[in-house]
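Collaborator request, handled under Task 6.
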Amino acid sequence: MPEAAGTKARTTTPPADPGPDRSGLRLGLFVAGLVFALIGGFGIGKLTGADAAPADGSSAAGGMAMNSAEPNANHAHAPGTAEHDHGSSGMTAMAGAELGGLSVSGSGYTLVPAATEFTAGRTADFRFTVQGPDRQPVKQFAVVHEKQLHLIVARRDLSGYQHLHPTMAADGTWSIPLTLGAPGTWRAFADFTLVDSAGAQIAATLGTDLVVAGDYQPVALPAAAREATTAGFTVTYEGTPTVGATQPLQFRVFRDGNPVTDLQPYLGAYGHLVVLRQGDLGYLHVHPDEQRVPGTVKFWVAAPSPGNYRGFFDFQVAGKVHTAEFTLTVK
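Structure tokens returned to the collaborator:
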């Protein structure tokens, strides 16, 4: 050990060894400290730097969530929306995730309607474009469930549901004849998957309000029930939507008390389920599980929050599409 600073060396005959050279000792300590700092810094970098997995489960290299290959993990993906999966197990909203259709714009893409005012009961063309970050209409859309774009329209009291499929002109303008039957504010949801300049597919659900002037008489939300009737069919469902856990909802169709076993594919599936949340009309479009028992259609859903929802189940029999409507209460 070197002598402590300020301690006198003992002198005898012959004279004591003068000890190590202090300047050399200081240099050695400096080099050792530098090496230690470099090693420590490397270790800390491994724990906190680019090689560490982000707490939100995303990839450090790409910044994308591990459970989502697209920017919006609704359709469960609108820019800024809830989770979307086109796989065989259907599409689920992840518990606590934001539902789609709440915004007119997201991730640089914007829904731009040509007009938003309609006359009650009068058919008029609804025209709109989807503009990209360059403010030009997007023209490249992927075909998802046999269509490039699904347009869902419903009044804000959750009545008047319509599932439509506009056509796109060469300039990127979408259009379809639309009839809004009663005064009030309606919500139009454009559900699509666009293809960007790099060839990447981006699933999105953007929404805009449509206004019908007149005396608005809101329709009360029907009580929650597991059975609904439409056009001579009785439709039931089993299962309970739950916040925080994906649960199956299985629908059955009956006619004259007998199970209907000859359901036909509609838009590439034996049924479609659109769910709207009361209050803000948060949007979820769920596709069914491909593994099914004849006469049944099963969906996997996780409720994003407690509250009341309106579910619209589309199915096809003998070439005609029918819609059964349900109120679901999630506690």
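The cover message to the collaborator said: "The two ends are 72 Å apart (CA to CA). Residues 1-97 have pLDDT under 50 and may be disordered. Please let us know whether this matches your experimental observations."
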